[in-house]
Amino acid sequence: xxxxxxxxxxxNTWCPGCGNFAIMNAIKAVLTELSAEGVPLxxxxxxxxxxxxxxxxxxxxxNSFYSIHGRATPAAEGIKLANPKIKVICFAxxxxxxxxxxxxxxxxxxxxxxxTMIIHNNRVYGLTTGQYTPTSPTGFKGRSTPQGTKEPPIxxxxxxxxxxxxxxxxxxSHGMELLKKIFKEAILHRGxxxxxxxQVCVTYFNMYEYYDKRVYEIKDHDAAxxxxxxxxxxxWDYNADKxxxxxxxxxxxxxxxxxxxxxxxxxxxxxKIRGILKTFI
Amino acid sequence: MNEFSLLIGGKAGFGIDKSxxxxxxxxxxxxxxxxxxxxxxxxxxxxxxxxxIRTARKRIAAHQNKIDFxxxxxxxxxxxxKDKLKDGAIVIYDPDSVKIEGLSAGVQTIGIPITKIxxxxxxxxxxxxxxxxxxxxxxxxxxxxxLDAVFRKEFNKEADLNLKIARRGYDATKxxxxxxxxxxxxxxxxxxxxxxSLGLIKGGLTTYIAYPMTPSSPILHFLAESAENFGxxxxxxxxxxxxxxxxxxxxxxxxxxxxxxxxxxxxLMTEGxxxxxxxxxxxxxxxxxxxxxxxxxxxxxxxxxxxxxxNAGQGEFARFIVAPADAEESYFWAAKALNISWKxxxxxxxxxxxxxxxxxxxxDINSIPPIKEDAPVxxxxxxxxxxxxxxxxxxxxLAFAGDKCAVVKVNSYEHDEYGITTExxxxxxxxxxxxxxxxxxxxxxxxxIETVKVYGKKDSTVGLLCWGSNKGVCVELAxxxxxxxxxxxxxxxxxxxxxxxxxxxxxxxxxxxxxxTAQLARLLKMYGIGVDKHxxxxxxxxxxxxxxxxxxxxAVK
Lengths: 281, 557
Description:
The complex is a heterodimer. Chain A has helices at 20-36, 56-59, 72-82, 94-100, 102-111, 156-162, 176-188, 208-214, 226-235, 269-278, and strands spanning 44-48, 64-66, 87-93, 115-120, 167-172, 193-198, 215-217, 244-251. The mean pLDDT of chain A is 96. Chain A is globular, with a radius of gyration of 20 Å. Chain A contains 10 helices and 8 strands. In chain A, helix 1 packs across helix 7 and helix 4 packs across helix 5. Chain B starts with a strand and ends with a helix. Chain B has a 7-stranded mixed β-sheet with strand order 9-8-10-11-13-12-19, with helices on both faces. Chain B has a 6-stranded mixed β-sheet with strand order 2-3-1-4-5-6, with helices on both faces. The relative contact order of chain B is 0.10. Chain B has 18 helices and 21 strands. By secondary structure, chain B is an alpha/beta fold. Chain B has 3 domains: 5-171, Pyruvate-ferredoxin oxidoreductase, PFOR, domain III (Pyruvate-ferredoxin Oxidoreductase, domain 3); 189-367, 3-Layer(aba) Sandwich (Rossmann fold); 452-556, Rossmann fold, CATH 3.40.50.920. The chains are: A alpha/beta, B alpha/beta. The interface between A and B is large, with 56 and 66 residues.
């Protein structure tokens, strides 16, 4: 496989040991593979929100749309709908996609737009220095909740399953090989795909040890079976002390939104406008 | 009778809107120029809805409170409007649902058993409209053939039954007055929203994205219906935040995109507006104003968001803001705004309001100056691609994802020429200056067009200052009273030079606005221009001719 230069001159400012490195390295490997398999890199657009995760687009020499906090998803949808040939890979944090921008995520899944969401779910706000997020466990002591949070986390995969997402998977930043496999499958899936990556923030919420003891890779699981998928996403609710399944949890074929849109046509407009005006007499 | 006003009213759900259009079209076909004001409450069934159809030999864009015809389908229509009836006016009504009381002797009344007729013909209740239109046509001695032709065009499904009912109304009435035809060609009757939509299409629109909100929803409806004909993508997402960000995704891909909303939705769009300013993503926003604050009066009109539009979004960035006043201006400036956004890679805001958007006007496409498309500046393909390359005029050449030779990076953070985040102080200033520089060149471009219009008696020392939908009423009164009208159309970047020229010779400047704080006057104050008197109306309703005439006469004293 020939090496392609995916780097930029931007200086990397993630903390040493940050889980974002695993995500970036996995995506670099997947892009290299896809390119070798004939997917032109110019047909890829990376989208990000705001947060530590989002710097990934500065570090990759690929088309990118560095959006605003919570609003990576609708921008990704717009890009895909504008040109269905483009593969859109959208990076977002848990505060970003599951908090401020949750409505967009639900609707993108509902529409089954062919975009890939990669959620850097470290379950803490990093860039704003350590507050709880929608997926922090109950009792999490962050800077805005020094006595511990009084609310349970949401289970994003269960929510996505209920919202008609057609591809759902989970990985961790301690498992590059699995991440590569899942990312590639998610990107090649035709429809809305979401990968929840248990990405560890070493500075504000170091969960490496916790995850390492509990994760297992899914086997003997029919990802096409909604009920099996539901059981799997309910096994661990991001709160209780339970085994944490990794791998592709749900996958189905379904029509995508973009195929229903009108094709662009700007020909003969003046005459058509005059034609319409005649009907207003 | 050759120039008159007709009021038709009933409950929401009666089909008053459609009836007004049909009457407008009938009058239009006999060479009358037509303006329709629509008044409706924010509900689906019930309440009181009415339309005033005003006609004249010349083009008009204002209504008056003195009414020549009332077509009353319910008691409210008669009770609420009978005081507006002129001497010699005619009331056509349904005696089964309307009781006529307390009219002056000069008013003629015709009771038509409309409810009975509709029942006898086994027709749906909504066809009571049709019956009363038939009666009006006979009363005004308009040829049946014209009604027949308009009905066949407007009611393609149930044309025959509608015609049958209309004929019963026609036959039950006698000829009372003669509505004179004018010997001039009929012009299309369009709403401001339709004209604006067609202007966007003319300007090269490929995508329209909106969340429903009065008074801009009709643009969404019209474009959704026209999507196939014009090869448009029309999308209704989850919220105005979703609208704006999805639109910016389209814009990034090179799609000429517009969004439409009203004040509340625009609030949600402002984070995306500021992003468009920073990332230099072209976007057109139609902002249909209605009375606020907050939900306000959803189905009525205002001019309260001028300063909101001028200042919306954090940070400092160039924007183009235009306030068209009628159908032709809506068409012209919608096309222009799209072109300006793409030439300068900035957001444009088209300020409309309910009176303009949902008002119905004659539209003469041949009177509109030619709109030549300014092609966006594209990447010259010589040096490696930099999305934010520094140039003499601040405009960087565009390339789009999918181009083999370009990596296209846009960024909401401050960024370098390549589009990569920076916090460097020197780079920050370079980029801020680059973005603002574009406004200077836009200003120069705009000097080639008349962006401050003058009407009325040009050498009058009394000037009426207005913007947007108040132009129609101001111009008509200025012609009558011998005053000058000054109408700024482009509000950002504002041409103080053109304004100074327009206002020269005026000793008394009177602003006419639909807001409580004289927002245009406030803008002029920033340029050192004082306004002597304010005529402000903020009850959600447009100025009528008679009402404004009185107020102007007091202000001129």
